[in-house]
Amino acid sequence: xxxxxxxxxxxxxxxxxxxxxxxxxxxxxxxxxxxxxxxxxxxxxxxxxxxxxxxxxxxxxxxxxxxxxxxxxxxxxxxxxxxxxxxxxxxxxxxxxxxxxxxxxxxxxxxxxxxxxxxxxxxxxxxxxxxxxxxxxxxxxxxxxxxxxxxxxxxxxxxxxxxxxxxxxxxxxxxxxxxxxxxxxxxxxxxxxxxxxxxxxxxxxxxxxxxxxxxxxxxxxxxxxxxxxxxxxxxxxxxxxxxxxxxxxxxxxxxxxxxxxxxxxxxxxxxxxxxxxxxxxxxxxxxxxxxxxxxxxxxxxxxxxxxxxxxxxxxxxxxxxxxxxxxxxxxxxxxxxxxxxxxxxxxxxxxxxxxxxxxxxxxxxxx
Length: 367
Description:
10 helices, Rossmann fold, globular, Glucose Oxidase, domain 1, alpha/beta, single chain
């Protein structure tokens, strides 16, 4: 398959050169503005079921490292597979240059049965997405000319199953230090686990369907991870999170974890017009008034006005005023909408993991 087409739900048809796997797929078309980090981005479970458009014009220029060993947390991969349904870019490099390069981007995509298309003006496409909001799209063969034909040919991931597809199947223990953290995996980026381990914690990574009340027994804190899809599709998990409040155990949420925690607190979430996906999203701490540049990847947000009296907004997005974090006024519970672990992106807010673990240690000591 030398040529493919991207067909959007509004009828737009874009033709480009195919690379990657010769497969037809459907998914929500989203854009990312990052200038590097395509290996981490493509393996981020939050992209499950989506067709990714990259605004930076060149992808694959430093290649892809060798596959990591099964069951490890080796960087730079954020999960054990490519998570996107397809990739759309202006140009990709078939001759990468980097000391760790083991294969090209196209070869990696092909090995994992993920299609890609180049030769698309992705910045014009991004402007369309910003104007109309996220659209469903189809990567199909060159002989498809209509939206009806694309719908008939391409299939995508059922988003209500996205978390079930990306969470671990059974609990995994990573041995570290004396502080013991339960990491609730709803499509967790591996660098969240690495961030905790590097700070001297031991981690129990549990599936999204785990019995949390039992899982936290003997543990010192809980971290709610990122993940794909609509947080309201995980209401059984929300009920379990709410049940942890009375245990007075420190809880910290990241990205989807912020939305789940807000729902557990009685708040509400809604879908953003085109989401926040990139490495340069500015947020402001409402307590200190300091601003930080953050890495983000989410399509839903929390309604500040829906939070109860015991809760308060913590961070705000400087660009559009949307919620970027919440705090409980009387319990050791908080969350952020951005990614303190970055990967890819700036590590300006990595100190939030330090603050969380200091809180966990203090409460463990009875402080």
